[in-house]
Amino acid sequence: MNPVVLDHITKTYENGKVLAASDVSFEVASGELFGLIGPDGAGKTSLFRILTTLLLPDKGNASVLGLDCNKDFEEIRRRIGYMPGRFSLYQDLTVKENLDFFATLFGSTLEENYSLIKDIYEQIKPFNNRRAGKLSGGMKQKLALCCALIHKPEVLFLDEPTTGVDVVSRKEFWDMLKTLKQQGITIVVSTPYMDEAMLCERIALIQTGKILTIDTPGKIIAAFPVPLYAVKAKDTYRLLTELRKRSEIASCFAFGDYVHITLKDNSNESQTDQLKQELIQAGHEQFEIKRIEPTIEDSFIQLMSQTYGR
Amino acid sequence: MKQFLVFIRKEFFHVFRDKRTLLIMFGLPLVQIVLFGFALTSEVKNITLTVIDNSRDLNSRQLTDKIKSSSYFVVNESNIDYNDVLKLFKKNEAKCALIFPSRFGDDLKHNGKAQIQILTDGSDPNTAKTVVNYISNITSAYQQEISNGKPLEYVITPEPRMLYNEEGNGSLNFIPGVMALVLMIVSTALTSVSVVKEKELGTMEILLVSPFKPLMVLISKAVPYLILSLLNIIMILVLAVFVLDVTIKGSIILLFLESMLFIITCLSLGLMISNTTNSQQTALLLSMMGMMLPTMIFTGFMFPLENMPKVFQWISNIIPSRWYFLIIKAVMLKGLGFGYVWKETLILFGMTVLTLTIALKNFKTRLS
C-alpha cells in the first residue's frame, strides 16, 4: 500500500459554504517526492492538515503509512514529520533550544538522528544561540526542516516551505529535499511557485479544491494540446487588450514581458504571420511572435480554463 | 516524563523572556498591595464627631476638649439621645459619634475604670477604623495624663461599634481580596493567553502532530503557572507581613493548600477559555472582563455582599473567588482552622473539579 492515500476527500468550512477540497483522490508512492501545486487558497493546506490528522474530512478516507487518519491518528503522529506553512517554531527560544525541545517532544535526541539533519543543521549551527525569531527567512526554514526531521519520520509533509524565502535559499532547500529523498523518506511538498513543480517527481495541480491533473511534470507539459505562442510588443498592455478582442485567439495571458496565446484553429501555420502583420500595421512597435514550449504554468492555466470553462 | 519536564522548562523560558508577562505576574500584585495598602487607608481630617455627653463631669469635659484640640475632628456637642444618633447615621448626617455614659467621671474616680462608646459608620470601614484609632489614642494619652505617669490608675476602655459592619472588617480585608484578584489574573489570564498564543503562532499544529499527548500539553502549560502563582502568594504574604504589618493568625500550610486549590480553579478556568478562543486578544478580554470584573464585584472585599440585592448575592455564590476570600479571611485574619472552612473548601473543590473536567474534555486533539 502506498504511504499516502487520499480517497475521494471532500472538506468544507463554515457549514459547507467554503469548499477547500472537492472529491480529491491521489496516492504518493514510497520514496517519492510529490508536489501539490496550486495558487493560494487552492486547498493545499487543508489537504496537508487532513493528512497530518489535524483535520477530519467531511467525506472520504485518508491514510498515511497504511494507517487511517481518523482512527489511528496517534500512531501516524509518531511516524510523520510536518512543517506547517507558517513558521511554527518558538520565536523566543534559541535555535538549539528549539531543536532540543522538538527532539525530546518526539521522543528522540539531537544526536540520535544527527546524520539525517547534519547537512542542514551545519548551516545554522553558527547561530545556535540566536533566538529563532531573529533568524532570516531562509534560516528559519532550515531550522523548521531540522525540527520536522529530528525524529526520522517516514513521511515528510512540507506545506509551502519556500514561501517568503529568497531565490538562493529556495534552491538550497530543494537540493536538501533531494538529499532527503535519497535517504528513502517519502516527501509531500506544496508550493504556489510553478517553477518549483519541475523539481518534483510527480505533481498534482490543484485549484479551488479540485485536482486538475496528476502526473510527472514532463508528461503534463507534453500533454499541452495545442501550439503555444509568445507574443511581445513595446506596449504590453495595449497588446494584451487588443489580442483579447480578436476572434481567432483561444487563450491569452500575460507572462512577464510576453503574452502567451493559443489559437482556435491550429490547422493553418500562416495564421501567425497574418496576426503579426495586422498587429504591426495597428502600430505595435518591436513586435515579436514565436512558438514556445509550454511551462507548467501554461499547463495550469490551460487546464484551469478547460475545467472552469474560461 | 522527560517530555513533560522539557515542556515545562520551555514554558519558563517563555515567561522569563517576555517582560510583559513578568510585569503582569509580579508587578501587578506589588502595585495592588501598595495601592490598596497605602492609598486606600486614607488619613481622616476634620471629620464631624457628634459627642453625646450623658455624664457632664470634669473628666468627660477634659477628654472632649482633648479631642476638640486635635486637628482630626470637628466636635459637635449635642443633647440628642442614642436613638437619634442612629437616625443621624441613617440619614448619613453623622459619620461617627462618641458617647459618654452617665457617671463616667464617677466610675473613673471610684472604680478606676470607665467606658466610652465610639459609634462609626461601618459601610466606610477605612474611615471607621481610622476614627476608632484616633479616639483610642487620644483616650489613652488622656488616661496617661490623669494617672500622672504612675502605672495606670485610671483605665478608660473605648468600646467601638461599627454600625452595619459589626465584624469590623476594614483595611485588612483587602489582602485576601488582592490575593484572590491576583491569582485570578495571573492564573486565568496568563494561562489562557499562553495556550492561545501557541494556536496563534501555529506551534500548536506541531505540538498536536507530535506524539506528545494533547492533554499533557494542557497540563504542562498549567504547571509553570501553578508554581509562579505560589511564588506570587509568598510575595504577597511577605509584603503584607513586613510592609503592611498584617499578622497571619492561622496556619500557613493551610493557607497554601487552600491557595493551591484556588489556583487550580483559576488555571482550569484559563484552560477553559483557551479552548474556546483562537486569539490572544479574545482570551485576554474574556479573562479580564469575564473573570476580573465578577471577582472584583462579587468577592466581597470591595463591596460588602450583605448590602447587595438578593439576586446579586445568589450570583456571587457561583464566583469561586468569593469562597476563597472567605476561607483566606478566616484562616489568615481570624486564625481559624480547617474545621471552620471545610464547607467553603468543599464548594471550591467541587468548582475546581467541574471546571477542570470541562476544560480537559473540550480540549481538541485536532484543529477545530
Automatic annotation (TrEMBL), chain A:
<keyword id="KW-0547">Nucleotide-binding</keyword>
<protein>
    <submittedName>
        <fullName>ABC transporter ATP-binding protein</fullName>
    </submittedName>
</protein>
<keyword id="KW-0067">ATP-binding</keyword>
<dbReference type="InterPro" id="IPR003439">
    <property type="entry name" value="ABC_transporter-like_ATP-bd"/>
</dbReference>
<dbReference type="Pfam" id="PF00005">
    <property type="entry name" value="ABC_tran"/>
</dbReference>
<keyword id="KW-0813">Transport</keyword>
<feature type="domain" description="ABC transporter">
    <location>
        <begin position="4"/>
        <end position="233"/>
    </location>
</feature>
<dbReference type="InterPro" id="IPR003593">
    <property type="entry name" value="AAA+_ATPase"/>
</dbReference>
<comment type="similarity">
    <text>Belongs to the ABC transporter superfamily.</text>
</comment>
<dbReference type="InterPro" id="IPR050763">
    <property type="entry name" value="ABC_transporter_ATP-binding"/>
</dbReference>
<dbReference type="GO" id="GO:0016887">
    <property type="term" value="F:ATP hydrolysis activity"/>
</dbReference>
<dbReference type="InterPro" id="IPR017871">
    <property type="entry name" value="ABC_transporter-like_CS"/>
</dbReference>
<keyword id="KW-0536">Nodulation</keyword>
<dbReference type="InterPro" id="IPR027417">
    <property type="entry name" value="P-loop_NTPase"/>
</dbReference>
<dbReference type="GO" id="GO:0005524">
    <property type="term" value="F:ATP binding"/>
</dbReference>
From TrEMBL, chain B:
<dbReference type="InterPro" id="IPR047817">
    <property type="entry name" value="ABC2_TM_bact-type"/>
</dbReference>
<protein>
    <submittedName>
        <fullName>ABC transporter permease</fullName>
    </submittedName>
</protein>
<feature type="transmembrane region" description="Helical">
    <location>
        <begin position="283"/>
        <end position="303"/>
    </location>
</feature>
<keyword id="KW-1133">Transmembrane helix</keyword>
<dbReference type="InterPro" id="IPR013525">
    <property type="entry name" value="ABC2_TM"/>
</dbReference>
<feature type="transmembrane region" description="Helical">
    <location>
        <begin position="222"/>
        <end position="244"/>
    </location>
</feature>
<dbReference type="GO" id="GO:0005886">
    <property type="term" value="C:plasma membrane"/>
</dbReference>
<keyword id="KW-0472">Membrane</keyword>
<dbReference type="InterPro" id="IPR051449">
    <property type="entry name" value="ABC-2_transporter_component"/>
</dbReference>
<keyword id="KW-0813">Transport</keyword>
<keyword id="KW-0812">Transmembrane</keyword>
<feature type="transmembrane region" description="Helical">
    <location>
        <begin position="346"/>
        <end position="363"/>
    </location>
</feature>
<dbReference type="Pfam" id="PF12698">
    <property type="entry name" value="ABC2_membrane_3"/>
</dbReference>
<feature type="transmembrane region" description="Helical">
    <location>
        <begin position="250"/>
        <end position="271"/>
    </location>
</feature>
<feature type="transmembrane region" description="Helical">
    <location>
        <begin position="174"/>
        <end position="196"/>
    </location>
</feature>
<dbReference type="GO" id="GO:0140359">
    <property type="term" value="F:ABC-type transporter activity"/>
</dbReference>
<feature type="transmembrane region" description="Helical">
    <location>
        <begin position="323"/>
        <end position="341"/>
    </location>
</feature>
<keyword id="KW-1003">Cell membrane</keyword>
<comment type="similarity">
    <text>Belongs to the ABC-2 integral membrane protein family.</text>
</comment>
<feature type="transmembrane region" description="Helical">
    <location>
        <begin position="21"/>
        <end position="40"/>
    </location>
</feature>
<feature type="domain" description="ABC transmembrane type-2">
    <location>
        <begin position="132"/>
        <end position="366"/>
    </location>
</feature>
